[in-house]
């Protein structure tokens, strides 16, 4: 039995401390050249795909102004402002990116040891649960289906808050196997995450409807058939809420465009398009879901700091150390200005079904 969800008053929240991810993203500084090489390789595969004709978010023919990042052209949709790479994320592309041994997607996220897993749950995923919690009068009544759960980080964070009903599905078998191990280590039920292969995902969502909230944390932008998959969720009338986090076309994209020797974490690799506030809200509106609460925070200034650090090192500008260190201490102060203007590199939005 699913209980009706009772929402609190909606709100918009801004900012998050960069120190929460400092250690976790340390490898971006240390392994810049290796990560950049992989990203360029993925870009080469991407450029061999068919031309993308329709905007990923609104479905209209793509027309708009361009930005180039690592030899890939992206056009901003004149209609909904969504930023689209000019090539399709075909099945072939997605399969190569996610399953190739040479460029292994899981490696980036599935840290080997339990300590890193727990720290990721506490610093990145628990705050997401807290955000969700602050929106609900009856949080214990929530039954979440976490789609693209990876190694179950969000599910772990929910279990820590005693949301026993939460359940996650993931297309990558490796990530699920690793996640089950981590769930066992925390004494949680390992069956809380399930491997659903790519070709079975559609069918799974048509059959499994026992949830009142779906979450896509950093997931929908990776879906080859984004609209089809999300609309299957929206068609489940029991589902009252959809909680998402998506990457946005923001200052970070300009930094990535202007620092060609620095690893582009945001636009490149498996990210072939980026949302804007307008395009993401438009996309969900079409599926009959409207924004309830929002949380705006990004990593734009951390990306700028990283880009300048990496380049200073490459240019052997040892004299910049003190200024860079001063800059590092101001990252949160700079970033909150962007966040408050809703100009950050990502956003979390809790959508509710339109009555
Ligand atoms: Zn569009």
Ligand kinds: zinc ion
Rg computed from alpha carbons, rounded to a whole number of angstroms: 20 Å
State the end-to-end CA separation.
Answer: 21 Å
Which CATH class applies here? Answer: Alpha Beta
Question: What fold name stands as the CATH topology?
Answer: Rossmann fold
What spatial form do the alpha-carbon principal axes imply? Answer: globular
Mean pLDDT: 93
Largest sheet: 8 strands, mixed
Q: How many helical elements? A: 15
The class by helix and strand makeup works out as: alpha/beta
Low-confidence stretches: 101-105
The total count of strands amounts to 12
> Which strand order do you get reading across the main beta sheet?
1-11-12-9-8-5-6-7
Give a structural overview.
- The protein has 355 residues and is α/β, with parallel strands linked by helices.
- It has a single domain (12-353), classed as 3-Layer(aba) Sandwich (Rossmann fold), CATH 3.40.50.
- It contains 15 helices and 12 strands.
- The protein has helices spanning 19-22, 26-30, 32-46, 91-99, 105-109, 114-133, 153-160, 173-185, 201-207, 226-234, 251-258, 277-286, 300-314, 321-328, 331-340, and strands at 12-14, 64-69, 72-77, 83-85, 144-147, 167-170, 193-195, 213-217, 241-247, 273-274, 289-296, 346-353.
- The protein has an 8-stranded mixed β-sheet with strand order 1-11-12-9-8-5-6-7. Strands 2-3-4-10 form a 4-stranded antiparallel β-sheet, with helices on one face.
- Strand 8, helix 10 (226-234) and strand 9 (241-247) form a beta-alpha-beta unit.
- Helix 6 packs across helix 7 (153-160).
- The longest helix is centred in the middle third of the chain and has 20 residues, at 114-133.
- The radius of gyration is 20 Å and the shape is globular.
- The site of zinc ion (ZN) has 9 residues, from loops.
- Residues 55, 57-58, 60, 77, 79-80, 82, 279 line the site of zinc ion.
């Amino acid at each position: 039995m699913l209980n009706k969800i009772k929402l609190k008053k909606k709100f918009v929240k801004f900012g998050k401390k960069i120190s929460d991810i400092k250690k976790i993203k340390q490898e971006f500084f240390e392994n810049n050249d290796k990560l950049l090489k992989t990203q360029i390789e993925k870009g080469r595969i991407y450029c061999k795909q068919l031309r993308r004709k329709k905007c990923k978010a609104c479905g209209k023919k793509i027309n708009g102004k361009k930005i180039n990042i690592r030899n890939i052209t992206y056009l901003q949709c004149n209609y909904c402002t969504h930023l689209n790479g000019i090539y399709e994320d075909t099945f072939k592309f997605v399969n190569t990116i996610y399953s190739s041994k040479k460029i292994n997607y899981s490696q980036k996220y599935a840290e080997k040891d339990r300590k890193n897993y727990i720290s990721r749950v506490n610093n990145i995923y628990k705050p997401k649960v807290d955000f969700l919690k602050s929106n609900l009068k009856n949080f214990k009544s929530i039954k979440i289906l976490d789609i693209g759960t990876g190694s179950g980080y969000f599910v772990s964070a929910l279990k820590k808050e005693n949301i026993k009903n939460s359940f996650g599905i993931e297309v990558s078998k490796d990530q699920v196997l690793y996640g089950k191990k981590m769930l066992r280590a925390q004494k949680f039920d390992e069956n809380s995450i399930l491997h659903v292969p790519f070709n079975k995902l559609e069918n799974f969502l048509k059959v499994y409807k026992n949830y009142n909230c779906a979450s896509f944390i950093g997931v929908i932008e990776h879906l080859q058939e984004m609209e089809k998959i999300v609309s299957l969720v929206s068609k489940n009338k029991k589902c009252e809420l959809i909680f998402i986090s998506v990457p946005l076309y923001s200052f970070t994209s300009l930094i990535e465009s202007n620092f060609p020797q620095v690893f582009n974490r945001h636009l490149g690799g498996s990210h072939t398009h980026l949302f804007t506030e307008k395009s993401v809200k438009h996309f969900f509106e079409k599926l009959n879901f409207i924004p309830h609460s929002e949380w705006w925070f990004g990593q734009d200034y951390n990306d700028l700091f990283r880009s300048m650090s990496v380049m200073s090192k490459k240019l052997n500008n040892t004299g910049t150390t003190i200024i860079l260190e001063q800059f590092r201490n101001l990252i949160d102060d700079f970033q909150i200005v962007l966040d408050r203007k809703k100009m950050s590199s990502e956003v979390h939005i809790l959508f509710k079904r339109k009555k």
